[in-house]
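4.2 Preliminary Data

To establish feasibility before requesting continued support, the project team ran the inverse folding procedure on a target of 133 residues. The structure was first converted into the token representation described in Section 3, and no sequence information of any kind was made available to the design step. The complete token record follows.
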């Protein structure tokens, strides 16, 4: 079975989105403290956004928008990854490596999202071409 960027990213985003609701405490801790309001509200909002993106990626009709939204969401939550790296700077080396390692991994994750958007655009173009025949 060939790699399907959009569906595989939909599973990742859906799983992470669900985790925001099932186990919110770890996500609460990485919400930048400079943001107004309660961390839990941001945890739930980002979880809901990830679930919405997953749903958009899962359906061909909304796949392109879902991929673009995923890339935007990955960029939007980057400050939380920076907050985690900052907060974990005093932790043991393996945990610190995990926190710092998350930062550069956001680049291929965003590229994956853009690949899913391109997949959606190609599928939409093929569908339009098929309608003309």
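Position-by-position output of the design step:
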């Amino acid at each position: 079975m060939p790699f399907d960027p959009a569906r595989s990213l939909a599973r990742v985003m859906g799983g992470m989105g669900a985790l925001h609701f099932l186990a919110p405490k770890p996500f609460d801790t990485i919400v930048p403290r400079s943001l107004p309001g309660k961390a839990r509200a941001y945890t739930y909002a980002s979880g809901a956004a990830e679930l919405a993106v997953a749903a958009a990626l899962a359906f061909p009709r909304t796949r392109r928008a879902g991929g673009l939204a995923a890339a935007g969401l990955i960029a939007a939550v980057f400050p939380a990854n920076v907050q985690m790296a900052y907060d974990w700077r005093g932790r043991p080396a393996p945990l610190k490596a995990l926190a710092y390692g998350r930062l550069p991994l956001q680049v291929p994750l965003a590229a994956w999202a853009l690949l899913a958007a391109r997949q959606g655009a190609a599928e939409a173009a093929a569908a339009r071409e098929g309608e003309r025949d």
